[in-house]
Amino acid sequence: LLLYFAQTYKQVFQFDDPPTHDPCAVAFVIAPEIFTAKMHRVDVELCSTLSSGQTVVDIWDQRQDKRKNVLVCHRMDVDAFWDLMITAIQKCTAKH
After folding, report:
1. Is 21 a catalytic site residue?
2. Full-model pTM
3. Which of 21, 40, 74, 96 is an active site residue?
């Protein structure tokens, strides 16, 4: 799947490397200590004709009248993440 997405993202979006959203989310559940995260106010735009469905994160805490409602990751130990990924792939491969 990673190779498929790498090729697709290169062709469609001209990304040299594909995003790994889902593996990052799973890694956070398994090893939250490799992430730096902070609570923020996050809303989804529902009314704009230009950005309907867009996720808006108040990283500057400008909306102090609204409660912070989502833990947002800002940094990740990339080497530790790929160690988790490679270990998981090796374990899956070893079973077959």
Report:
1. yes
2. 0.78
3. 21
